[in-house]
Every structure is written in structure tokens, then in C-alpha cells.
Amino acid sequence: MPGWLLFGGSFNPIHNGHLGVCRHVADRLGVDRIVLIPCANPPHKRGDDLAPAAHRVRMCELAVGGDPRYSVDDWETRQPGPNYTLLTIRHFRGQIGSDLPLYWLIGMDSLRDLPTWYYIGELAAECTLVTAGRPGTPLPDLAPLRKLVAAAEVARIEAHILETPLFDISATDIRERIRRGAPFASLVPDAVAAYVTAQG
Ligand code: ATP
Fold it and tell me: I need a surface site. Which of 27, 76, 112, 117 has the fewest CB within 10 A?
């Protein structure tokens, strides 16, 4: 089925875990377009450790360069104030039109956090949330979500919890490795490793 798979994150930096789940989910859904959306100043994370958006956008571009299915969109980084996924969904819905499916990819840790997301009831209705497994994060109890999201939408979220290959990689671990001079290049695409090394 055609449609767009949107994948938002801090991508600080983008790593092989992001790319692995994204590719797998895109193939499973059969979407013809994947959009990576680096955030500006995320409402659910402290920003202290966040590299400037231009660097994170550039690393995403290097990671997917040459693959025509992918694009990188810096829309969130250009918005004033904190980013809310609902507003991003509405922006892309405006581009894709009302007929085609719009998927928003999250990892299992984000599924656990969904009840804290801005207007999660509306968000769950306006796109299809797709969850990929993540090592160390079991399937969360969805009871808190059921208090905020209509039953039909929770059922759709549950139906889109996909069995994906598991990638035990996090950007936090990569940043720590870089700080202490430990090897990290096998965890990111070659072009991203080269960029990090060149930019220090
Ligand atoms: P950090 O360690 O800085 O918190 P992260 O590795 O979790 O970063 P983000 O950019 O914050 O990466 O993640 C964006 C989205 O990608 C989130 O929904 C997250 O759950 C998902 N994600 C990140 N890494 C993985 C992974 N290894 N497997 C599955 N999902 C992942």
C-alpha cells in the first residue's frame, strides 16, 4: 500500500538501530516514502546534550543519501518553541492529502511514554502509530493509554506493534563512547562516523 512512513527523533546522532527498524517497518508496510524528521527542542527530553539541529539534520542526510525512498525534513527544526508531534502530523497530512495512510514510527520506549504526549487522543486518530521492538523495553501496560485514547485507536496501535529485528543501540551510548574515545563507528553508517570524527 502506498503511504508515508514518518520517523521523528532527536537523531543525536542517527544510528544503525534507527535505520534498521525504519527499513524493516517500511518494507512490512510497503510504503513508498520514508521521511526522517529531526526534532528541534523536544518536549519530552532535556536539551542539554543535544547537538545543534543543523548537525543532526546533516547526519540524517548522510545516513540515507542515495536511497530515493528516503528524505530528511527539517520542518520541526524551523518551528519556534517546542515540537509537538501532533502539529508535525498535521503539517505532513497537509502535504500527502487525506486519502493516503500516514504512519508515525516509534520504538517500544516511546510507546510506554505515549500517555504523556500532547493531545495523544487526536494524534492517534490522525495517523497510524507503528511500534518497533527495542531491547530492554518490554511491551508496556496500555491501561494509561486507554484513559486518553478511544478504544478503536488503541486497537489500531496494538495491531501495529510489529515484530522487528532488535537493535541494541542507543544514541546515549554512542555519545558516551565518543566522549571517552571508545569505538563507535560500527553503530552508525560510515558517512556519519566520518562526519562525527571530522566535526569533533
Ligand atoms: P537517546 O539515547 O539520545 O535517547 P535514541 O537512541 O533513543 O536516543 P531517538 O532519536 O531519541 O534515539 O529516538 C527516536 C525514535 O527511535 C524513538 O521513538 C525511539 O524509541 C526509536 N528508537 C531509537 N533507537 C531504537 C532502537 N535501537 N530500536 C528501536 N527503536 C529505536
Answer: 27
For cell 552508525, what's the residue? 188
Q: Can you give the pTM of this predicted structure?
A: 0.95
**In a mutational test of the pocket of ligand 1, which residue from 5, 6, 7, 10 has the highest number of ligand atoms less than 8 Å from its CB?**
10
3-state secondary structure of 36: strand
Mutate which of 6, 109, 112 for ligand 1 pocket (most atoms within 8 A of beta carbon): 109
At residue 172's C-alpha, the angle toward residues 34 and 187, to 5°, is 60
**Among 120, 122, 42, 110, which Cα is nearest to 82's?**
42
18 lines ligand 1 (CB under 6 A): yes
Q: What is the pLDDT of residues 91-124, one digit of tens each?
A: 999 999 999 999 999 999 999 999 999 999 999 9
Answer yes or no: is the C-beta of 106 below 6 A from any ligand 1 atom: yes
Does the C-beta of 56 come closer than 6 Å to ligand 1? no
The per-residue b/e assignment along 140-156, b for 16 or more CB within 10 angstroms, e otherwise, is bebeebeebbeeebbeb
Place of cell 485514547: 149
Instruction: Give the span between the Cα atoms of 190 and 196, in whole angstroms.
Output: 10
